[in-house]
Amino acid sequence: MDFVYGPGKNHLFVPGPVNIPEPVIRAMNRNNEDYRSPAIPALTKTLLEDVKKIFKTTSGTPFLIPTTGTGAWESALTNTLSPGDRIVSFLIGQFSLLWIDQQQRLNFRVDVIESEWGRGADLDALASKLEADRSHTIKAVCIVHNETATGVTNDLAAVRKLLDGYRHPALVLVDGVSSICAIDFRMDEWGVDVALTGSQKALSMPTGMGIVCASPKAMEAAKTAKSVRVFFDWNDYLKFYKLGTFWPYTPSIQLLYGLRTALDLLFEEGLDNVIARHSRLGKATRLAVEAWGLKNCTQREDWFSDTVTAVVVPPYINSADVVKRAWTRYNLSLGLGLNKVAGKVFRIGHLGNLNEAFHFNPCRLSGLRLNTVGTWD
Amino acid sequence: MDFVYGPGKNHLFVPGPVNIPEPVIRAMNRNNEDYRSPAIPALTKTLLEDVKKIFKTTSGTPFLIPTTGTGAWESALTNTLSPGDRIVSFLIGQFSLLWIDQQQRLNFRVDVIESEWGRGADLDALASKLEADRSHTIKAVCIVHNETATGVTNDLAAVRKLLDGYRHPALVLVDGVSSICAIDFRMDEWGVDVALTGSQKALSMPTGMGIVCASPKAMEAAKTAKSVRVFFDWNDYLKFYKLGTFWPYTPSIQLLYGLRTALDLLFEEGLDNVIARHSRLGKATRLAVEAWGLKNCTQREDWFSDTVTAVVVPPYINSADVVKRAWTRYNLSLGLGLNKVAGKVFRIGHLGNLNEAFHFNPCRLSGLRLNTVGTWD
Amino acid sequence: MDFVYGPGKNHLFVPGPVNIPEPVIRAMNRNNEDYRSPAIPALTKTLLEDVKKIFKTTSGTPFLIPTTGTGAWESALTNTLSPGDRIVSFLIGQFSLLWIDQQQRLNFRVDVIESEWGRGADLDALASKLEADRSHTIKAVCIVHNETATGVTNDLAAVRKLLDGYRHPALVLVDGVSSICAIDFRMDEWGVDVALTGSQKALSMPTGMGIVCASPKAMEAAKTAKSVRVFFDWNDYLKFYKLGTFWPYTPSIQLLYGLRTALDLLFEEGLDNVIARHSRLGKATRLAVEAWGLKNCTQREDWFSDTVTAVVVPPYINSADVVKRAWTRYNLSLGLGLNKVAGKVFRIGHLGNLNEAFHFNPCRLSGLRLNTVGTWD
Amino acid sequence: MDFVYGPGKNHLFVPGPVNIPEPVIRAMNRNNEDYRSPAIPALTKTLLEDVKKIFKTTSGTPFLIPTTGTGAWESALTNTLSPGDRIVSFLIGQFSLLWIDQQQRLNFRVDVIESEWGRGADLDALASKLEADRSHTIKAVCIVHNETATGVTNDLAAVRKLLDGYRHPALVLVDGVSSICAIDFRMDEWGVDVALTGSQKALSMPTGMGIVCASPKAMEAAKTAKSVRVFFDWNDYLKFYKLGTFWPYTPSIQLLYGLRTALDLLFEEGLDNVIARHSRLGKATRLAVEAWGLKNCTQREDWFSDTVTAVVVPPYINSADVVKRAWTRYNLSLGLGLNKVAGKVFRIGHLGNLNEAFHFNPCRLSGLRLNTVGTWD
């Protein structure tokens, strides 16, 4: 194996999975329980109520699915759409690319609106498509709120404004995997129909829970959506919601208790304070990058992400070497550049339950300079 | 909430999720890690090698999917079959019923062979179907190895023998959720094409990992299977297997380390010893039931399950009351009767990392007698 | 090493250290903290207030000392007595023997009142001594509330009554290691001057905290006691109590949080309910012993202990073999016979956070019979 | 309470208790076990063998005592000396002061050699005393290897050289609490007779285990030492060492497993590498202090401590405000100035299982400047 024991804490500054706070680790340090006992439904009920708050919705229906973000995507699409449905989707980086790939493989007709990597969703292109679509053949607009590969945050309020402007009834499906609980997100206000995140992101838990929330309009769409689905079928959940036992199949007891604590921590700090903290740490990271004399991959300030910064390295350096060196020498995990920006950027995650002292670990490298062999002096 | 704090350990004797041994809880008591670091692929590689041993296969390809047993079912079906394919499936209890429901919703044509609950798969009916199927329209035989609802273990070697007798090429897909690692299972020897289990069963881990293993024949079938799949698509895994990074999406770091320890414990005890232990504890449970003067739901000795015993209560008793009383009074979790046997049976799980002293908790009630209000005297 | 991996949970039925409930294990699953931060004093304050409740005192002063029961003994003696002081001490088993040994090595003049092992403290002998001691040369009466080696509980109210009857001012020092939080104990009502227990007993925590409580009279005695002491000196604690920082040296952060949870669990169940539960489980154990046809080492019913039962084996059997067999074969830990009763008794602990189902593990052996080679059939 | 929930990890940079590495936390995440079973003695035997390596001794006898550093001091003194014995002791800071206080209260005659705080032990004064002591009335020299209050490391080899030069037979008792496993220490080579440390220091465990090691000469002295001792008496340990059961009273099972893992981590990294790492991080801290324009409390380079740096603040600032601000604002724990240097210094611990990225947290404040109200700009 090409890794050896290193002393000290691993510093995890990838944009997910993120550092788990001790209280969540503690809450999950437990044996299994019978999920058909009275205790687990009682716990689940509080979770379903409270999880709506992180989406800022009162009318949405949440689902806690034993899956990853990829599964949450599939759940959002298959429950609301039918094969052959036309959707508009923005390609701005690796994660939007992967979602589009999934959309195509699930047999939707996808109008891909591509931007240069480092730029946000091209809303002008969306406007043109909406304007042209008098007959409402577009059934959904799919958008990644925060593209983790390039550190780009899209403007969801603007998407809603466009749809309203054209009185277009398309559903709005949002990947909030690296935004929800960290970047301002307002499901009800912005008319988002399906929003989703994963437990290992801003909730600062282990991987394994896809959290999906559906608007009343999405729930209505689910009644006629013809996409084949079983594991991801919301109807199976709804059946057990009615019974008050909540689970169509076995949930992870540990993740349920972990979510309870993760939500408690969020609410204790205050969701708005959490978002402000991400904003503060995001800005600090960008200032550090500037101080290093390096460029942010994100091309315009209004797209800057408060959860991840993709840093462009000079052309004579392979960014993968930076990541490798950080890992072997400092026990510090940074994110690789992916696909089109492989070798060109490394990524600093500033996502989750962090504080100033914790956060500045990667930034403390600011005194150092990248040398020509791609390592720090 | 209708539950209160009770002192002492909860005794979990449902057939899953089962008790987690301390070393596994310990191994999972950890922070997240970057799954793209060199450490996680190195760990994953050992897991994929070792997990084949629990299936008793050398030629199979394993998949560790962040899902439950229900998702593992879907993975087995969608990767090997196409919509409209004819399959034969045995209905002998609640879990085989649910799998058949999934098969039908995934648009396969399912020949259901039903048995009375408490009886095993009707292999004579299978024989007739195979004999009649000269043109090999049957693409797969789906069978639950151990039906958890009724405590019935099916004879997989006999299924193989029948198929071989008729030189029938149908795939054999096996739900081994409550058998693998606890009841003798031999993937290669019995010509099983897809076998699957879940982490929260005999592996004695938390829920969240579906473990699926595919024979070379199943892998071949996957190349042409037309069922729509993305999250569950084996091809995405194979792509990353080739890259040596193994994961198409984020795995649970905690479950990977948990699986490592669960496998270590299994191999330290010896898989055959583990199976012998389940056999011993299963027999002991059945003797206890006999001593109570109660009936086993399983109708014939050769179907007796070594991982769960469904106990029939007298007609004047509701078995749910027995379960409830055990929980409120003794902090002891038993399994309810499901569907057709609801109210009629309760179930004692004797599955996972148990020993004699641990196991006999539910059986120690043997000195007691069920009274007419469904509680123990 | 003469032990191997055994599957399933170890069943710990020694009278200490006892099984730790999951919530306490969870609470202790944490990193160190700075004990000079504002958080630890705030936590300590609640502990010192609440721990008085387990002694049933409002006027006592508690000390949470990083030590074991042996250290707590030393703390009780050296803070209240001077070398050469005359004390009366009851020898009724191994633990009272060890305490007397300590008393003698600390240079007190000890009047030992010995009883046959299996019998309680000889209070008639105490009465004679008190009657004869007109000049009050006896400075303290030392008594083990519950002798763990023989399963004997002494009558502390009777001791108080005798002292009051003779208007004797001797201090009463009580070892409550295996009684406090499990057997009725009333510090104020019974005029106990120093009472002590250890974290690993009825509080169901790990070893490492000696909990000592001193009456106002004992605190007064501490001002003039000339025994040499530093680590165990109450004055060092009092100095920091006044400062509000509480700790003269570094406490175990983990044990502080563990104690917080242990107390919470006790109060949630209700201390009187906890005592009633021990009484119920103690009685049940004695009935099981009777059913086995074996004899209780304790010779009279009013001495029966509700936290441990010492079981006398037939003369042709070595009780150590019973303990060894339980451990190797059933992963079940029982207590050995100690000193005078070595080989003659084994001990079943029924102490701590137990319930009926948990507890009956050792008793489930009731269907078995001891055979002539000292093992169970 | 004057503290509130803060997000992110607490950064613990006091010189003890220090950060516990995850593997040690994991190892301790367990239930109690019977310490009289065969497993615990087998484990203990490996610990006693291996713990000698951290003292660099082959001839020493180690004791793992359930106590703190203060108790370990008492163990060292009372087992080797008799009341009235003359000892020489160096007062150079708060911890040497406390040890001297203990020595005096234990009734030894202490020649205190005082240095200005910030300076090391005055070895010239020792030389004079040794020279004058032809009749060998000095029974022991007591020295704190690393004074935690001022960040001063004493030269133990020089002490040995002096004693040898004068052929003086005095015992050498060393407090290695904040040095052993972090700063070069050689028990055998330097002729140290009793050395001691605590679990919560360089071993990076919770508090609760005092680790004491005695040379053959110290063991010989213990045979005639007349200090009263019971809990701390080495003889009780030796009795159980001979029996092979090792424990005179109940040890903390959790700390034993924790120590096993702590030693494994030390040996995996290599003790010399660990010491080199502390040297590197210590130097880096001092460079940071220099860069801040602040002064090191330690007055001479050869006394610089590699485990803690005491930083002198400007006279118009109260160092307690710096510590408080770090805690409330950054969730960062620094050490207060103690006693004579209270308000004048704050302390940065760089002790235990740290790495560069972890370590530089407090140092990242280097970009900031102390302002006149004692906080950072």
UniProtKB/TrEMBL annotation, chains A, B, C, D:
One GO term of the biological process aspect: glycine biosynthetic process, by transamination of glyoxylate
Gene3D superfamilies associated with the record: Aspartate Aminotransferase, domain 1, Type I PLP-dependent aspartate aminotransferase-like (Major domain)
Cofactor: pyridoxal 5'-phosphate
A GO cellular component entry from the record: peroxisome
InterPro entries to which the protein is assigned, alphabetical: Aminotrans_V_dom, Aminotrans_V_PyrdxlP_BS, PyrdxlP-dep_Trfase, PyrdxlP-dep_Trfase_major, PyrdxlP-dep_Trfase_small, SP_NH2Trfase/AEP_transaminase
EC number: 2.6.1.44
Protein's name in the database: alanine--glyoxylate transaminase
Similarity comment text for this entry: Belongs to the class-V pyridoxal-phosphate-dependent aminotransferase family.
Keywords: Aminotransferase, Pyridoxal phosphate, Transferase
Coiled-coil region: none
Binding-site list for substrate: R347
